[in-house]
Amino acid sequence: TEAGETIRATLFPGDGIGPEIAESVKQVFKVAGVPIEWEEHYVGTEVDPRTESFLTWESLESVRRNKVGLKGPMATPIGKGHRSLNLTLRKELGLYANVRPCNSLPGYKTRYDDVNLVTIRENTEGEYSGLEHQVVRGVVESLKIITRQASLRVAEYAFHYAKTNGRERVSAIHKANIMRKTDGLFLKCCREVAEKYPEIIYEEVIIDNCCMTLVKNPGTFDVLVMPNLYGDIISDLCAGLIGGLGLTPSCNIGEGGICLAEAVHGSAPDISGKNLANPTALMLSAVMMLRHLQFNDQAERIHNAILQTIAEGKYRTADLGGKSSTSDYTKAVCDHI
Ligand code: NAD
């Protein structure tokens, strides 16, 4: 990005609390003077035959064109004849890695105060693809596909991330002692990539041991890279270490350099429309998007304002034990900026 340039980015406000917290992000960006023009796309009310989902073709094209976007939570409508919204995005945009930083927030007390790790999850294959069928009655089969191409791609991303973000170590999480072929191949690919990054320490940790260490002493981890299903589980465990869903951002990396940031949480139907949601997770996701665009000054200012607001403790939403509404908390963050 060059100075003075305005960037177009796609915004999916999403469902439930999505539009409320997306509004918070828009306000914060305005106050911080972020030169971004949003292209807003909503989830449709009927299935678009071109995508076989409630997401329109135009909205996917918008992300492909802009290569950068922010996504609120999407509630997948129940019924047949359409694909899950998140799965559609993942497949259509080739979102191959999910990056989720977990940092203890100063001033917000949890059991740990030294969590500073990043999980990087392979996002396209493994058990998570749901390739399952019944062989005969009482016997089912699930296919766990691991390919060299997808493993190398996510490993490459993890090491590149570590190097460009001043991280020292990459841990590959696996169960290759049992899943010798599949996790074995995943590890082999990680080792190959590790050789190209001699400045980054590389280690391999068996997933059960990883879980134990994470809850005992999460401060020992730096960057973790892992196959899809392990990433699904471990990244939620890590979110829990720092205070839960209202706080954890993430970012999906896709083919051709696409970056689609999103909060980890869902549409929270129990509190939607009540001005109660915590917009922090989506704001921090937006900060990840800004860092991706190299808008580092604005990213830093917004990040610091969020940290200060939470640390002060005067304005906090209900999920963090406070009494503030979404809009009061957002205003406090804006005032700090
Ligand atoms: P959820 O994350 O929406 O809610 C779980 C609990 O956390 C609720 O009590 C909710 O009030 C609370 N919560 C979540 N985000 C919060 C926030 N920002 N501030 C304060 N409290 C918050 O999970 P769910 O209820 O299992 O799912 C609801 C819907 O969201 C479902 O349709 C599901 O498919 C969808 N979902 C979408 C995504 C996504 O788009 N990435 C992720 C998860 C769930």
UniProtKB/TrEMBL annotation:
Keyword Acetylation found: no
GO CC term (a single one): mitochondrion
GO biological process terms on file: isocitrate metabolic process; tricarboxylic acid cycle
Residues of the Isopropylmalate dehydrogenase-like domain: 6-333
Cross-referenced PROSITE patterns: IDH_IMDH
InterPro entries according to UniProt: IsoCit/isopropylmalate_DH_CS (IPR019818), Isocitrate_DH_NAD (IPR004434), IsoPropMal-DH-like_dom (IPR024084)
Recorded GO MF terms: isocitrate dehydrogenase (NAD+) activity; magnesium ion binding; NAD binding
Protein name as it appears in the record: Isopropylmalate dehydrogenase-like domain-containing protein
Pfam families hit by this protein: Iso_dh
Family label: Belongs to the isocitrate and isopropylmalate dehydrogenases family.
Superkingdom in the source lineage: Eukaryota
Swiss-Prot/TrEMBL cofactor(s): Mn(2+); Mg(2+)
SMART domains: Iso_dh (SM01329)
Keyword Calcium: no
The entry's keywords: Magnesium, Metal-binding, NAD, Oxidoreductase, Transit peptide
